[in-house]
Amino acid sequence: MADVLHLPGVVHMSDAEFGQYQQLVEQLIGIHLAPIKKAMLSGRLARRIRERGCASYAEYFKLIDGNGDAQERQIAIDLITTNETYFFREPKHFDALRDTLFPSLRGRPVRVWSAACSSGEEPYSLAMIMADVLGADAPWDVLASDISMRMLSTARRALYPMERAHHVPPQYLKRFCLRGTAEYSGYFLLEKALRERVSTVQVNLANTLPEMGKFDLIMLRNVIIYFDAHLKRRVIQAVSEKLKPGGWLVVGHSESLIGHTPDLIPVAPTIYRKVSA
């Protein structure tokens, strides 16, 4: 890490500078960076700071604070946010969707929201199961959102290194994925028919949610764990309002909604259902 933190032309991040970034990150995206995240933050920003010709973290901060450059601020957010994901992550959730939830929705339009989609593996995992269970010609769609424009760009492209295919069931890999050739050798692309069912939009969960309609299922996995208690309650309430009566909300295996909203009742570990009106 020392080689990253001390790139030529970039000095070490002071505690005071870290405090500035802490406040800004919490203000912009609702994530509190604990002091132990200082090395992570400085490492992720160091190269960009050098590219912009800034001599310190304080100088770069002036570019991205409330009066700074909105485009540069988005670049900083993209660098700071964590984007750990893979296809069919936390497979018990997808087993429940395939075996119970989606079969119960057959015969009517189905809308799903992947609320922290990162680079797209989650929404395409959902789309593969929906095409399989509901049918390729059935009326269903997936909305994928993230705060990172860089991650949304990757999701829209739907082109991934072959090593990312490790968790994709073989029958889905054969049915929905195209192996790259020539310059795309070593990559696979989700088929066009599947890509067309997945739309993307930038959403900051810490802000007022945009008008998106109502959903039968919302995946809100591995994101609220980064919020403080107040923001967590606010986000859960706002997201639950986007569910249709009887709709499902799925959170990560290390997360819980118990005590946050009476509208959601647990039906399985980390799977909740909205009380019907």
Give a structural overview.
A seven-stranded mixed sheet has the order 6-2-1-7-8-10-9, with helices on one face. Strands 3-5-4 form a three-stranded antiparallel sheet. The longest helix is centred in the first third of the chain and has 15 residues, at 15-29. The radius of gyration is 20 Å and the shape is globular. The protein has 277 residues and is of the alpha/beta class. 40% of the residues lie in helices and 18% in strands. The protein is built from eleven helices and ten strands. It has two domains: 2-80, Chemotaxis Receptor Methyltransferase Cher, domain 1, CATH 1.10.155; 91-274, Rossmann fold, CATH 3.40.50.
Name the features.
single chain, 277 residues, alpha/beta, Chemotaxis Receptor Methyltransferase Cher, domain 1, Rossmann fold, 7-stranded mixed β-sheet, 3-stranded antiparallel β-sheet
Write the topology of this structure:
Blueprint: H1 2-5, H2 15-29, H3 38-51, H4 57-64, H5 70-80, H6 91-104, E1 110-114, H7 121-133, E2 140-146, H8 149-157, E3 159-161, H9 170-176, E4 177-179, E5 187-190, H10 192-195, E6 198-202, E7 215-220, H11 229-240, E8 243-251, E9 264-268, E10 271-274
Helix pairs in contact: 6-7
Gist?
The protein is an alpha/beta fold and 277 residues long. It has helices spanning 2-5, 15-29, 38-51, 57-64, 70-80, 91-104, 121-133, 149-157, 170-176, 192-195, 229-240; strands spanning 110-114, 140-146, 159-161, 177-179, 187-190, 198-202, 215-220, 243-251, 264-268, 271-274.
